[in-house]
Amino acid sequence: MGAFFSDLAAQFHQAFIEADRWQRYLSGIGVSFTVTLGALAIGVILGVLVAVVRTLHDQQKPHEKNALLSILNAIGQVYTTAIRGTPMMVQLLIMGFVIFKSSRNLVGVAILSLGINSGAYTAEIIRSGIMSIDPGQMEAGRSLGMDYITVMKDIIIPQAIKNILPALGNELITLFKDTSLVTVIGLTDLTKAAQQIQAKTYQAFMPYIGIALMYLVVVMILTKLLGILERRMRESDRR
């Protein structure tokens, strides 16, 4: 038993302490956070745009069909179907080695790739939230002289966000975990840092178990923060 713990301590020293290797993990998790936040911003923007277009199209009266809106809705449908129907890793490979094969900005490529992927899922989440709001609120806002965008921005979307916050929180957590896939385009995130250390030390146990625990801790913290936010929003509704 003593030999086992001695070997474990030696592996820990090699994986984290020796040659200040802990700094690689720290740098890697910083890259993971950067990609997550950048992708989330792109995903939310794309998601809102696609959700609003598709909702507006669905709410049109049969005799008032708008040709431009129909085209935009078709583009949105193709986008969500194509992105949700193909693996995230394949999308990263296409972006990294086909579309942006000459780019050296791997962080930017990763953010754009994950952001486009997230946007397709976020669009459906937001659209379901918008559709959950009583249509009478849109009609009431329009009867008061407000245009469609104003009603959506000031009345519908704020309420929808409260309804879909848990799903958006899950999307944030999924995004953070999906950053582990950016190793396929050569970006040194947390997972890539562990792979590099494993290649130097020839020890896989400690680097990979270590980053698994790091991902778990971050996800637990995010889950806790999202829970606090949800409770505060519920409390504000009761006041």
Task: Name the poorly predicted regions.
Answer: none
Evaluate the radius of gyration: 22 Å
Distance between the termini: 59 Å
* Portion in beta strands: under 5%
Which class best fits the helix and strand makeup? mainly alpha
**What's the order of the H and E elements?**
HHHHHHHHH
Provide the residue-averaged pLDDT: 88
Tally of helical segments: 9
Overall form: elongated
The residue fraction in helices comes out at over 70%
Main β-sheet description: none
The beta-strand count equals: 0
Short overview:
By secondary structure, the protein is an all-alpha fold. It has helices spanning 2-17, 22-58, 67-84, 88-99, 106-131, 135-143, 148-178, 190-201, 205-238.
Walk me through the structure:
This protein is an all-alpha fold and 239 residues long. The termini are far apart. It is 82% helix and 0% strand. The mean pLDDT is 88. Helix 2 (22-58) runs antiparallel to helix 7 and helix 4 crosses helix 5 (106-131). It is elongated.
List keywords for this structure.
single chain, 239 residues, mainly alpha, 9 helices
Write the layout of secondary structure elements.
Layout: H1 2-17, H2 22-58, H3 67-84, H4 88-99, H5 106-131, H6 135-143, H7 148-178, H8 190-201, H9 205-238
